[in-house]
Amino acid sequence: MPSIRLTSLLDVLAGQELVLGLFLAGAGLAFLMLGARMTRVITAMSFGVGGFVAGSMVPATPEMQVVGGLLIALALAALAVAAVKVGVAVLTGLWIGGVAMAVAGQLGMEDQFVWISGILGFAAAVSVAFVLFRETVAFVSSLEGTFLFLGGLIIFASQSPALWGHFRDMLVRNPVFGPFIILAGTVTGFYLQMAEIQKKEAGQSA
Question: Considering the entire predicted model, what is its pTM?
Answer without folding.
Answer: 0.80
